[in-house]
Write a structure and sequence with these properties.
single chain, Rossmann fold, two-stranded antiparallel ribbon, 19 helices, 6% strand
């Protein structure tokens, strides 16, 4: 165990201390945060004026309904009577007012409004204004016939409760499936598993081509070297993910209020809260990451050990890449129908389950027993693949020359 810990420590520190790790770990979140924040900060100086508008209501029915909706969206609104157009134009040209909107009978008939200003309100602000006018016009028309309708809920697209017969479910059980969060989580699993598992192959190949492994094997058993590399690189991955999660949490905690203050029409706290995964999905994500990483890291370690050059490794890893790409091809169909029989079977396959099981759990409610069965098959697959990969690694790590054929690999597995 002492030698195993030494290998793990070496693999971990060697990567954590590298400039590339620091750059990718801190640079990626800083880049995305900067890309979102810098444009907003650039326009912040003009935001207050552009969100300050006047409202002229020629119908006498819409202003009392449009005004609170626009204020809720972050606009500063003042209602003025008809005939003030010249004064408002002067204020807008002097920069004291962003513009003014006029509501006439067309606003009640078809949600049409006219906006006057030195420049347009922008696509998002314009959409917010039109939405406020349309909702207000519908409220007026419905009030005329005595109908009571929750327009806010209707315009949000409605909601859906899932009630599956006689099953204890995990996933979206009380609200509509959050497809964006599930899709993003499944893709993230695919990328991190591929990135860190491939790092194990490169580590094995570097030591083999540099003839360092011949020295290491004299004091470390092959299975300890392979396991140490897998755990060490995996620990680097967990460290990087932890930093990214921390940066994301800080961005949501500190950045969202500032963004909401600068451009409230861009931020919907309720939608963001619904898109974030719950504790159950986070725990499932971690379990699938660990299982998927160990499974594919063992495969990549075997690929790295049986190749002598980078070109050979690039060719030999294609079958492993196909196993990872396969789930991505089924991702959207499975999210559309997460409980279809073929989707259940596909999510039970160890090579597919790291991506597909999370997509199913995030896109719809699935029974607990299916999650348990899929995780069981996944970790049993890890043991089986690790056993085969370990025997290939034991022979291949000291072999030089031509890449072995499939019959030769089978002989290595039987005789190692």
């Amino acid at each position: 165990m002492r030698t195993l810990r030494a290998v793990i420590r070496r693999e971990y520190l060697q990567r954590v201390k590298s400039k590339w790790f620091v750059f990718s770990t801190l640079g990626a979140p800083l880049f995305f945060i900067g890309a979102a924040v810098v444009p907003i900060l650039y326009e912040t100086g003009q935001e207050e004026t552009r969100r300050s508008i006047a409202l002229i209501d020629e119908t006498g029915l819409l202003a009392s309904r449009v005004e609170p909706r626009l204020k809720e969206a972050g606009f500063t609104v003042k209602v003025v009577p008809p005939g003030w157009e010249d004064s408002l134009k002067v204020q807008a040209l002097e920069g004291d007012l962003g513009g003014y909107m006029v509501l006439d009978e067309d606003a009640l008939a078809r949600g049409h409004m006219t906006y006057f200003g030195p420049q347009g309100p922008g696509a998002i602000r314009g959409m917010t204004m039109r939405g406020a006018v349309v909702q207000s016009a519908l409220e007026v028309r419905l009030a005329e016939v005595g109908a009571e309708v929750d327009l806010e809920a209707l315009f949000r697209g409605g909601t859906m409760d899932l009630r599956i017969f006689d099953e204890e479910m995990v996933g979206a059980t009380e609200d509509e499936p959050e497809f964006i969060g599930a899709f993003a989580g499944a893709l993230l699993l695919y990328m991190v598993v591929l990135m860190y598992a491939a790092a194990v192959m490169r580590a094995a190949l570097e030591e083999k081509t540099g003839r360092i492994v011949e020295i290491l094997i004299s004091s470390v058993r092959p299975w300890e070297l392979m396991l140490g590399k897998i755990i060490g690189v995996g620990s680097v991955g967990l460290t990087q993910l932890a930093v990214w999660v921390l940066c994301g949490s800080l961005a949501l905690t500190l950045g969202l209020p500032a963004m909401a203050a600068a451009q409230p029409e861009l931020v919907d706290p309720e939608a963001i809260a619904q898109a974030l995964p719950g504790v159950g999905l986070l725990a499932l994500f971690l379990a699938l990451f660990l299982g998927g990483y160990f499974l594919y890291a063992a495969l990549y370690a075997a690929v790295g050990s049986m190749c002598s050059t980078e070109e050979e490794a690039q060719q030999a890893q294609f079958p492993v890449i196909f196993l990872l790409i396969g789930p991505i091809l089924f991702l959207l169909p499975i999210m559309e129908n997460p409980n279809a029989p073929w989707a259940v079977v596909a999510s039970m396959v160890p090579f597919f389950s790291p991506v597909l099981l999370y997509a199913r759990a995030g896109a719809g409610a699935i029974p607990l027993w299916q999650i348990g069965a899929s995780l069981t098959f996944l970790y049993l697959g890890v043991l089986g693949v690790a056993w085969v990969a370990g025997r290939i690694y034991r022979v291949g790590i000291l072999m030089q020359g031509k890449r072995p054929t499939l019959p030769e690999l089978w002989r290595w597995v039987k005789e190692a």
